[in-house]
Design a protein that fits this description.
The chain is of the alpha/beta class and 363 residues long. The chain folds into two domains: 234 residues, Ribonuclease Z/Hydroxyacylglutathione hydrolase-like (Metallo-beta-lactamase, Chain A); 65 residues, no CATH class. It has eleven helices and 14 strands. The strands form three sheets. A seven-stranded mixed β-sheet has the order 1-2-3-4-5-6-9. A hairpin with a 4-residue loop joins strand 10 and strand 11. Helix 7 packs antiparallel against helix 8. It starts with a helix and ends with a helix.
């Protein structure tokens, strides 16, 4: 495994503990600093359709969410504006190299901030822009996003205290953790200097169809899953599906959401005639095998929790349910023989189990 990849999975593990402190409303926190174009990974999915995978920088636990750029004959459609204005500016510079057409539409696939904090940057660059979100996503963004700078200041104070005491979330901080936290503090301070909240300007409930000129874009709310207002993009002619964090690679992000509905939502997406799938984070997929693997993982957790509830009742306590769930059969299917990714899978399996219990017991 390369050093860069090993570091990436180590950061994935640190993310679990940082989420608790950051109180990022269940989102993987996506810390980041200014990024240069050379470190972005760009994949041309079809003529005029590009995936931008953002770099993982010092202090960047997960990196910004993926950005997809869809160029029509009249106008450009962008999916997700990533997590930092400076990174969004770099994306815009790339788009301007690809086309002289304006970005007319920007979709926020969900409310997690690593997918939408570049909104204002896009609007400043393209004043006629429409920023699209499912109605529930806009409602939640308007509720929580204006308070993000204050929350970050509180988080910075907590992190600095953790560095002084040597513990985070009741656990000893390793030298690697310390470096990550220092980087995250720098990133949060950068965020607060740059960030201006921009709300979506156009909402939809179930589906929105947009003609970019010789290219149809279908914006869908296939159901609740990762959040209450998840949106996906489907290009029927190109058979490309962009999922947001409903699907994340190499492991899912079940930090919050609605597990039983999430399964149905993924199954709905799985019925689309898609040959290329862009996840919310991670590299592009060229078939649906990973999508249905995630479905099977979620179903197994749900079935095991429900079986235990039927056996011992609804009020046996979280620990009684947790000990009954065994997802190790999926470990190698997600992680192979990669030691770091195996450890990350175990963390994610525990998070998923907790989420399923919380949903099943209405807690």
């Amino acid at each position: 495994m390369s050093h860069a990849r090993r570091k990436s999975f180590a950061q994935y593990l640190v993310c679990i503990s940082l989420i608790v402190v950051a109180n990022c409303f269940g989102a993987a926190p996506g810390f980041g600093g200014p990024a240069d174009d050379e470190h972005r990974k760009v994949t041309e999915l079809a003529e005029g359709v590009y995936l931008i995978e953002h770099p993982s920088l010092p202090g960047d636990v997960n990196g910004s969410g993926n950005t997809t750029v869809i160029i029509g004959s009249r106008v450009v459609f962008v999916v997700d504006s990533c997590g930092l204005p400076s990174m969004a500016r770099g994306d815009i510079a790339l788009i301007r190299k690809w086309t002289n057409k304006p970005v007319g539409f920007l979709l926020n696939t969900h409310f997690h901030n690593d997918h939408n904090q570049g909104n204002r940057t896009y609007l400043d660059a393209f004043p006629s822009l429409q920023i699209i979100a499912q109605a529930e996503t806009k409602r939640i963004m308007d509720l929580i996003m204006p308070g993000q700078p204050r929350k970050r200041e509180e988080t910075i104070i907590k992190w600095k205290k953790a560095l002084e005491t040597g513990t985070l979330d009741g656990k000893q901080i390793t030298p690697e953790d310390r470096a990550e936290i220092l980087g995250a503090i720098t990133a949060y301070e950068t965020w607060n200097k740059e960030f201006v909240y921009q709300s979506p300007t156009l909402t939809f409930n179930d589906e929105l169809q947009i003609d970019l000129g010789d290219r149809e874009v279908q914006v869908k709310h296939p159901g609740r899953g990762n959040t209450a207002g998840d949106a996906a993009v489907y290009l029927p002619k190109e058979k490309i599906l962009v999922t947001g964090d409903l699907l994340v690679r190499p492991l899912p992000y079940p930090f919050d959401g609605y597990p039983t509905e999430w399964v149905k939502t993924l199954e709905t997406l799985g019925r689309l005639d898609a040959q290329t799938i862009v996840p919310g984070h991670g590299p592009v997929l060229h078939d649906k095998a990973y999508l249905f693997l995630v479905v099977d993982l979620f179903k197994s957790a749900i079935e095991q929790v429900n079986a235990k509830i039927r056996e011992v009742g609804l009020f046996a306590g979280t620990d009684a349910y947790k000990t009954s769930v065994d997802l190790t059969a999926f470990r190698s299917r997600f992680a192979g023989d990669d030691k770091d990714l195996n450890a990350a899978f175990d963390q994610i399996a525990a998070v998923l189990t907790t989420l399923v219990i919380r949903e099943a017991t209405l807690q």
